Amino acid sequence: MKKLSARRRHPLAAVVVLLLALAATGGLYAAFAPASKAQADETAQSLAIDEGKKLYSVGCASCHGTGGQGTTDGPSLVGVGSAAVDFQVGTGRMPAQQPGAQVPKKKVIYNQAQIDQLAAYVASLGAGPIVPTKNDVNPQGADIAKGGDLFRTNCAQCHNFTGEGGALTNGKYAPSLEGVDPKHVYEAMQTGPQSMPSFPDTTMPAQQKRDIIAYIQTVNSAQAENPGGLKLGGLGPVSEGLFAWIFGLGALIAVAIWVAAHTAKAKKS
Amino acid sequence: MSTATDTQRKAPAGERVADWADGRLGIYSLAKANMRKIFPDHWSFMLGEIALYSFIIIILTGVYLTLFFHPSMNEVVYHGSYEPMQGIKMSQAYASTLDISFDVRGGLLVRQIHHWAALIFLAGMFVHMMRVFFTGAFRKPREINWLFGFLLFVLGMFTGFTGYSLPDDLLSGTGVRFTQGAILSMPIVGTYISMFLFGGEFPGHDFVARFYSIHILLLPGIMLGLLVAHLILVFYHKHTQFAGPGRTNKNVVGMPLLPVYMAKAGGFFFLVFGIIAIIAAIATINPIWNIGPYRPDQVSTGAQPDWYMGFAEGLIRVMPGWEINLWGHTLVLGVFIPLMAFGLVLAIIAVYPFIESWVTGDKREHHILDRPRNAPTRTAFGVAWITEYVIVFIGGGNDLWATHFHLSLNAISWFVRIFIFVGPVLAFIATRRICLGLQRRDKEKVLHGRESGIIKRLPHGEFVEIHEPLGPEQLHTLTAHEQYKPVELGPTVDENGVERKVSALQKLRARLSKGYYGEDNQIAKPTAEEYKEITSGHGHH
Amino acid sequence: MSSQEIPDENLPAEQGTAHGAVEVADDPFADPGLPAHKPRIQDIDERAAKRSERAIAFMFTLSMLATVGFIASYVIFPVDKIVYIWPFGHVSALNFSLGLTLGVALFAIGAGAVHWARTLMSDVEVADDRHAIEAEPEVKAKVMADFAAGAEESGFGRRKLIRNTMFGALALVPLSGVVLLRDLGPLPEKKLRNTLWAKGKQLINMNTMEPLRPEDVAVGSLTFAMPEGLTEEAEDFQNQIAKAALMIIRIEPDNIKDKREREWAHEGIVAFSKICTHVGCPISLYEQQTHHVLCPCHQSTFDLSDGARVIFGPAGHALPQLRIGVNSEGNLEALGDFEEPVGPAFWERG
Predict the structure, then answer these.
(1) Could you say which architecture CATH assigns to the domain A41-131?
(2) How far apart are CA B322 and CA B333, in angstroms?
(3) What is the pLDDT of residues A174-191, one digit of tens each?
(4) Which of B270, B324, B478 has the most C C-beta neighbours within 10 Å, making it the best mutation to test the interface with C?
(5) What is the pLDDT of residues C236-285, one digit of tens each?
(6) Contacts with B89 from chain C: Cβ below 8 Å
(7) Residues C222, A205: C-beta atoms closer than 8 Å
(8) Which CATH superfamily is domain C203-349 in?
(9) What interface predicted TM-score (ipTM) does this complex get?
């Protein structure tokens, strides 16, 4: 151990650690990939990769390069993993329409089968986070309160208390999490799309991600309870202040006008 | 009045009670002056009542909340009925606020009424203050009452802020942290005040209990005293009124307190309470259960204070990060300047009545209100002040404007940084021009009559619009306002050739006076001669 | 100053007398006086008055019914009953019903009273005279004389010793109250300069409560850490975490522009204070592509790849960096406390 700590500032140490990290990621990939998938029919898998490659060269290669190595218009996709593809294409962010501060969520143009093929192809370029299974993102039985605490530590600073979203620098923003598929929430935490940092399993275990998803489902979904009434966007004091001025004071002034106005006089006819 | 010797008839019970009270309190003399007190009718005179009634609602609901709230920062683990907080560590203050919201029947309603009423209370005071400002109701003899009102507004802000901080939730805790950071920026005394206020380092275990006694006792106590004084003065001065037929500086025209205003003002209390209760039924305010308990290492985006502190928030957000390090000390201008600017902007509006009365040199009583257009410089100043307030306010919500209007947060900050200086100037110029335009239109109306919209063709083919002359009531109303002449410094050398000393202050006053009442800065109102010349002769165009 | 009085001719003529009192019959702008009172429908038509009466009685009755409804709601609805009501969403049945019934009960009383005042009570406008607030000269003279007599009798002006010592005593006595405030809190001393970090303290991941290892921290990820030994159960947890909260990211060492930052990092893993140097918000809106971190409270922006220097907003100086390394167990550890105070700047910071 002494030897190790003495050499930890060696110029090559970073490389060694990176290699270790890569190996660890690969190991995790192997460990977490469900056995059935790992033993999937080799031919089916390679077929998907081939199909994905075709789709890729039509829809993605112009920005990300023919082999996914990246160009000035788009980052390299080597090692981003299938989860990143499933998130980016599955939420309609990719393919991007125009350059801007941030690529927005829009209508999805590929079907799930095509997305899976694209993901298979990109995953074949280099190991990376894989698409979570149904079980990985199932909020059933997760600890909502723990999820809330984790959400406030890791997520709320950008996405707001209940995931309503918020502003970042120079026109970038953290999007609202309302109605986002739990799978995509999970993938975003895994891969860190665009400005968002990643929260890999090494620092935020899968169970905690499920807790967070369960919390979001509880406080920000169509079924979310707002015991006090209208949630006013869930944005806090700014929307409350606007409501108080426009509807509160507005209604009171309207009433005041009625109270103070002279009653209609009888017309002499 | 006494019926003590009147044995002919037995006085009714109510009268006997009144007699009893009169013998001890002198209520008949009091009622003689006040029972049929006249109040003029105008919707804008009721804005203050909105504030008054919300204050009463806040006190009523506040007392109820104290029955359930625990102002303690002792750590507890939550096991109440709100599932997403089960097992979370929090302060007792936060836990008891959750209990009020989820376990006390009607507790959530009272909490929401309390908070909505607080927002409306401050908004009501603000618009009431602006009404008084723009109509010149702050002039003699009401300057002191203006200051009382101003103090109520400022104290209301701090009462609101301390109340907002009590639940010890993540949002309000962030606000308290901001306050502590601002206190630290004060030169020399900052760290000491911070340590004393929080009982040591931030957040400590004391501030909720300390804010609690400030929020429920100290500040409301002072406010109640000021409020009573404010109302006594309103009664004593009698209400102002707008100019109009039969309305002079020496009378007040309206309807008597008993019965009309008893019913109208009393009824208005119930209307205000009713509307606030309905708002509390349908709209959530400060859902602390979504916000989470305060932890100094957690935060949410969109961290804003309640609206009345948004102005302070904006100042602090758009200030560049200036910091001076000299001789081992740090002058935190980036925080300290906004802190000072906050006080300064408020102080400017507070002292305005005294500045104006110094410029005019007017020592007479004023009970007839100005129409804002007839005091262009004052109106322009007021609009410039509001513009400043609103621009800074935009800065306070820059992150939400950014996300909701797809703008860059940095661009909004830069906009505010520039328009904090440019905006009021533009607003001043524009408002004054609009006021002068309206004055010209009034003059036009007085001299040429009202545009009837009827087009007439003259024999020689020309089309003219028929102007209907105004009735005597309107003629009087439109010409009743006062117009000052600008102060002249006079010759600097008197008749004996001795040079007279003119102080810089006098020069300033002459310049300000010219700015207020100089030739280009108000439109001379029509004279009787002008009117007669036009109406008697061929004045129809 | 104001002793330089403005001559009276600058002031406009007294309002109300300007036209009215001139009494020139042909002044077109003269005050025509209060217009004659015109009756309302209710004043001349008894049926209309009856209609008003019924409307007012209806409102008061409605209020009574609403109060009954309030009590009924209180009894009927369980406190945790949630119902869906368009367009308000899934709301508490109790809050909604109590608020609406209370609102209607109150509003109806007000509406009834105001309608009564507007339609049935007299609406004849009355003029009431104002009286000058300033006292008459005789009154003032009497008060001044009384005051002079009182002052003279007290000897206040003559016996200066008494007067001066009294002022002294009155000025000093509030000091007792000020002194009593001393124990509100301790003196600042060096409290704002130190945090719980010290050489050898491991970085504990705040999600897992396990020590962080370098291989856990991927490039582009964001993790928060607190010092080993601090627990959420600790009495002073809030005070400690307010200073010790740490934000851990990893940047390719080549992308770190600041030399000191690279040296204080461990293989590109950098640890910065999570507490904003502006007014102390926990800053952590980390944009992994640009390495900028934004404060959600006042939008100070720091460049974490360049010594966390301020690139936008009101913060006055960079975020303090914690020097970290790896201990013998392969866990990340601090190599000392922060070298400068964390959080907002203050006078003694230097």
Answers:
(1) Orthogonal Bundle (1.10)
(2) 5
(3) 999 998 999 999 999 999
(4) B270
(5) 999 999 999 999 999 999 999 999 999 999 999 999 999 999 999 998 89
(6) 232-233
(7) no
(8) Rieske [2Fe-2S] iron-sulphur domain (2.102.10.10)
(9) 0.91
